[in-house]
Automatic annotation (TrEMBL):
<dbReference type="Pfam" id="PF00378">
    <property type="entry name" value="ECH_1"/>
</dbReference>
<dbReference type="InterPro" id="IPR029045">
    <property type="entry name" value="ClpP/crotonase-like_dom_sf"/>
</dbReference>
<dbReference type="GO" id="GO:0005777">
    <property type="term" value="C:peroxisome"/>
</dbReference>
<dbReference type="GO" id="GO:0006635">
    <property type="term" value="P:fatty acid beta-oxidation"/>
</dbReference>
<dbReference type="InterPro" id="IPR001753">
    <property type="entry name" value="Enoyl-CoA_hydra/iso"/>
</dbReference>
<dbReference type="GO" id="GO:0004165">
    <property type="term" value="F:delta(3)-delta(2)-enoyl-CoA isomerase activity"/>
</dbReference>
<protein>
    <submittedName>
        <fullName>Uncharacterized protein</fullName>
    </submittedName>
</protein>
Length: 271
């Protein structure tokens, strides 16, 4: 394998302004780990195109590479990922089943240890993907981990919720999901959401101390899959989530519109 390798196409960023594809994912490697870096401006929101490149990279590493730890991170200094591009998600047929849940499942079933280097904000789906990794290292100086769906009335469907409940327990998941808490790196470390505060140097130290010990174990991924089998099963069971979410939002809009009209009439009747 010759590195770096780019997915889906090797095009200089300046050419993106001319309407050509931007390199979204690149993979480099040293003797102990693969470094998968992505770059989908402005804030690494997950779209079908972005996830397709991500999946291509993971599949290439898994099928063509030697056993090494997988490290994933963003090339954008501010955002690990700002979550789903919701409008694109609900308008793309099969988005959840064929793209987003497949990405979660691919990371959960990856054959070797995985580390998410959260270099900036990890919101919503970005937080979920980070949680799918075995280990998390977070920038100590900037960025939050946050599930902010409750703040704007968005639902969390089974695969989105079970990754937190199974990984971190129901008590902490309440703070993550129902309260939408914005975790700083210190809070995330204290809560057990991340393993280390730092950057690539700390990732490399973590690999040397812990993660790299299990790269050649043929049972490593099987044990992970048994530990997280509920989450993996959820990613296979909800291929209609775009329709479900759209209906729920439409129902909510109708409810609040009707409630607003009722309140308006009530106010007018008291004037």
């Amino acid at each position: 394998m010759s590195f770096p390798i780019t997915f889906p196409a090797a095009v200089h960023p300046n050419k993106a302004e001319q309407g050509q594809d931007w390199v979204i994912v690149s993979v480099s490697a040293d003797d102990s780990y693969y470094l998968l870096e992505y770059n989908s401006p402005p804030d690494n929101r997950y779209t079908a195109k972005f996830i397709a490149a991500y999946l291509q990279a993971l599949d290439y590493i898994r099928t063509q590479g030697e056993p090494r730890v997988l490290v994933t991170t963003s090339r954008l200094p501010k955002f690990f990922s700002n979550g789903l591009d919701f409008e694109a998600a609900i308008s793309t047929p099969g988005f959840f089943d064929e793209y987003y849940y497949r990405l979660m499942r691919t990371i959960l079933e990856f054959p070797w240890p995985t580390v998410a280097l959260v270099n900036g904000h990890g919101f919503a789906a970005g937080f979920m993907v980070a949680a799918c990794h075995d280990y998390r290292v977070m920038n100590p100086d900037k960025g939050f981990l946050c599930m902010n769906e409750v703040a704007f009335g968005a639902d969390l469907l089974p695969p989105m919720m079970s990754i937190f409940r199974v990984k971190f327990g129901s008590q902490l998941s309440r703070k993550i999901a129902q309260e939408g808490h914005r975790f700083t790196s210190k809070e995330a470390l204290d809560a057990g959401i991340i393993d280390v505060r730092g950057g690539l140097a700390e990732v490399e130290a973590l690999i040397k101390a812990v993660a790299g010990k299990y790269v050649k174990s043929p049972s490593y991924s099987h044990i992970r899959q048994e530990l997280l089998k509920e989450v993996i099963a959820d990613t296979r069971s909800f291929d209609k989530d775009a329709e479900i979410l759209t209906k729920r939002y439409n129902d909510q809009d109708a409810f609040y519109s009707k409630r607003g009209q009722e309140l308006e009439q009530l106010v007018k009747s008291k004037l």
